[in-house]
Amino acid sequence: MSKPSGFKRFGEQLNSKALPEIDVSGAVMERIRALSNEREAPGKTQRYMKRRPKVLVMAIAVFVVFVTTAAAAVLPLSWNGERITIEDDGGMNAKIDALKERIFGREPSSKETAEDLLNNHKNAKEVMGLAEAAKQFPFTILRPSPLDTQPTRSNGALMNSMLQENGQETRIIGYIPVFYDIYDLADNRWAVVTQQLDQMATGLIAGKVDSGSATYVGDWEQVEINDQIMAMYKEYSRENLLLIKYKTEQSQVIELKVTGTGEKDELIKLAKAYTGLE
After folding, report:
1. In the 8-state DSSP scheme, what is residue 222?
2. Can you tell me the distance from the alpha carbon of 132 to that of 30, in angstroms, rounded to the nearest whole number?
3. How far apart are CA 178 and CA 195, in angstroms?
4. For position 5, what pLDDT does the model report?
5. Average pLDDT, the chain
6. Cα separations (Å) of 25 from 28, 51, 104?
7. Could you give phi then psi for residue 141, rounded to 5 degrees?
8. DSSP codes, 236-261
9. pLDDT band for position 89 (50/70/90)?
10. Which of 47, 78, 153, 198 has the fewest CB neighbours in a 10 Å radius?
């Protein structure tokens, strides 16, 4: 019988070794939680799927089934010089949101987030009333025409604009004025109306910006589009969103979001009070 080769003897030695068990679940979950906490600030209108760094094999294994699906671009259109694209992601973001909820628990609703911001100045430099906001904000704040339901709270906020680059700590680079109206609807339902200046779209109209584009991911429904208004609607698992770009008489573009647990028709009725949306 021939003698075992050196390679075979080395393999036998490895097989005889008892490798220690290493529990990395805690570290893995801490890293996943850290990644999940990188959430968009309130007031941001476009929903993006952010690709996470490939740091942990477990995190990659959890998410790879979703990120391999390619989104198809549909409904390219132009509104006041801005190119708008809607990407059908095949429900990818909804699946990722559901998975995050199972791992980390339910995220605060838009109403809870707004109330936390206005009560505790979270992610905001300053919170103010309508009169002071009208003085400080660089746009004319839209006010609703008379409705059966009136806002239970109306406040402006100077939101922190954050920047992180080259692995450095996140820093505040400025402030974004956002105005909030909170509504209590029938049957314990609610709606939050936020508005802020769309600087890129306003710059396009004024000729200060050469070109601009925006991409919206998911199952968006076009509600209305004309020279003054572009409105789109999307349903999420726990709340619905009516997203509007509204050109004022001063040729400013206001980005209006009507978010809540109300039905589509109710959100449109609220938006109509601010913009005349049909």
Report:
1. E
2. 42
3. 6
4. 54
5. 79
6. 5, 22, 15
7. -70, 125
8. -SS-EEEEEEEE-TTS-EEEEEEEES
9. confident
10. 78
Looking at the DSSP bridge assignments, the partners of residue 216 are 86
Cα distance between residue 260 and residue 180, in whole Å: 13
Q: Nearest Cα to 195, choosing from 147, 238, 141?
A: 141
DSSP per-residue letters across 149-183: S--SEEEEEEEEEEE--TTPPPEEEEEEEEEEEEE
- DSSP letter, residue 42: T
Find out whether 142 and 114 touch, Cβ atoms under 8 Å: no
Residue with tokens 């400013």: 252
What is the number of residues in the chain?
278
Give 168-221 pLDDT, tens digit per residue: 888 899 999 999 999 999 999 999 999 999 999 999 999 998 888 888 888 899
- The pTM is what? 0.73
Tokens of 196: 């802020």
Q: Residues near 28 by Cβ (< 8 Å), separated by ≥ 6? A: 56, 58, 59
Given a contact cutoff of 8 angstroms between Cβ atoms, the answer to whether 142 and 275 are in contact is yes
